[in-house]
Design brief:
- By secondary structure, this protein is an alpha+beta fold.
- The protein has two domains: about 5-60 and about 105-275 and about 315-435, Outer membrane efflux proteins (OEP); about 65-100 and about 275-305, Outer membrane efflux proteins (OEP), CATH 2.20.200.10.
- The chain is built from eleven helices and six strands.
- The strands form two sheets. It has a four-stranded antiparallel sheet with strand order 2-3-5-6, with no helix packed on it.
- It is elongated and about 135 Å long.
């Protein structure tokens, strides 16, 4: 196992709220705001409610339908055709119809709708997994830009002091104009980096606000204070990468889609067999309204129908072939998602471990650069080295400092990618919160 990663089972609670490992209250607050306000989550919740309603429609098809009817009519015939007589007719009835599901077509439709609904549940969870990862990455970038700004502004202050000393030395005739111009060049180049960093910082805040379902600029005040980049824990439990398949919502969704399409084959197969329908009606019928609710007005009807489409030019057979071909396509999609999930986990582990190694090297470079700058300044003022040595050392140190900050943010972002690859985050929103939630399917569901 790579550095910083431990091959032991991940705690479900920690994986569900993985951002708490950074111990940053601001980040936790942003996650809660994103869960409540993100528009993609709200859209996924609406899609889930749609899938649940569709399942209810398919379930209702298993039961009889009943209706109540009331009617009254008066008919007057013409004298030329019927003698000019008037006739009344009054009726009340209860009608029922039931298509028997003898060959399981309706049950397979319900099974398909149930699997589709469960796929929508996993799609909602997958939306949450992606959302929380994006929010955290944007937050890390914000802290990275803030820290880089502080470093650059500190470097500007230091270079300004150096420039003033060099200018004084030039005015005193101790050095040439070249040294002063080089000091000014370095100072202004460093100062020019500040607007770009500020622009990137504000744009990232705007991106984060959109993820939270808020107007751009809303977070300007709450994130105005500069804070360090959250430090990841020294060790992260990742378990066995193959077990990530049990947690990843996209894999679970793909499996449910395969189950739904498999059930559609059964629906198509059922069309090969006869359909049986029972119809019944009981009611009251009379030519006079006063006699409508008497025993003599009672009427009843019972009928049974059987229909078998024994020739359709091969339409049903071809539809079965079509559904089988669609199942093969969905199976390929499922296998692709599984392989992609394993790749994501392995890539995230490699990136996280290697960035730790890179970060240690950059930390050593910063320490060496600071020491070199102090020594170069001392030797320059002692007349032992030229000013170009000081400038080169300053630029190298500033570059190393910024690279170290970027590495810190990258390491945290790589850990976020690892948690995303492991499917962490979705348990933070119970599906019961989206209007009548159903029990989540077990990862061990088989088709």
């Amino acid at each position: 196992m790579a550095a910083g990663l431990v091959a032991k089972p991940t705690d479900p609670q920690t994986l569900a709220r993985w951002w708490t490992v950074f111990d940053d209250s601001t980040l936790s607050d942003l996650m809660e705001q994103a869960r409540k306000g993100n528009l993609s989550v709200r859209k996924a919740e609406a899609a889930l409610r749609e899938a649940r309603a569709d399942r209810g429609i398919q379930r209702a098809a298993l039961f009889p339908t009943a209706s109540a009817n009331a009617a009254g009519s008066r008919t007057r015939s013409s004298k030329a055709a019927g003698g000019g007589g008037t006739a009344n007719n009054f009726a009340n009835s209860f009608d029922a119809s039931w298509e028997l599901d003898i060959f399981g077509g309706k049950r397979r439709s319900l099974e398909s709708a149930t699997a589709t609904m469960e796929s929508s549940e996993e799609d909602l969870r997958d939306t949450l997994v992606s959302l929380f990862a994006e929010v955290a990455v944007d937050y890390m970038e914000i802290r990275s830009y803030q820290t880089q700004l502080a470093i650059v502004e500190s470097s500007v202050a230091s270079q300004t002091e150096t420039y003033e000393i060099v200018r004084w030395r030039h005015q005193s005739g101790l050095i040439t104009q070249l040294d002063e111009d080089q000091a000014r060049l370095s100072l202004e180049q460093t100062r020019a980096e500040i607007p770009t960093l500020r622009s990137n910082l504000e744009q990232t805040k705007h991106n984060l606000a959109i993820l939270l379902g808020q107007l751009p600029g809303t977070l300007k005040t709450s994130l105005a204070t500069t804070k360090p980049i959250p430090v990841p824990p020294s060790e992260v439990a990742v378990g066995v990468p193959a077990n990530a398949l049990r947690q990843r919502p996209d894999v679970r969704s793909a499996e449910r889609k395969l189950a739904a399409q498999t059930a559609q084959i059964g629906v198509a197969e059922a069309d090969r067999y006869p359909t049986f329908t029972l119809n019944g009606s009981i009611g009251l019928e009379s030519l006079m309204l006063g006699n409508l609710y008497t025993a003599s007005a009672r009427a009843a009807q019972l009928a049974a129908n059987a229909t078998w489409k024994f020739f359709d030019g091969g339409k049903i057979r071809e539809n079965i072939k079509k559904q089988v071909a669609l199942q093969e396509q969905v199976l390929c999609d499922y296998e692709t998602v599984v392989l992609t999930a394993l790749k994501d986990v392995e890539n995230a582990m490699v990136a996280y471990a290697n960035e730790q190694t890179r970060r240690r090297a950059l930390a050593e470079a910063v320490r060496a650069g600071q020491s070199a700058l102090d020594l170069a300044r001392h030797q320059y003022f002692s007349g032992l080295v030229d000013f170009e040595t000081v400038l080169t050392t300053q630029r190298s140190l500033l570059s190393a400092q910024r690279e170290l900050v970027i590495s810190d943010a990258t390491m945290s972002s790589n850990l976020i990618s690892l948690y995303k690859a492991l499917g962490g985050g979705w348990a933070s929103l119970p599906l019961s919160a989206t209007n009548g939630g159903t029990k989540a399917p077990s990862p061990e569901n088989k088709i």
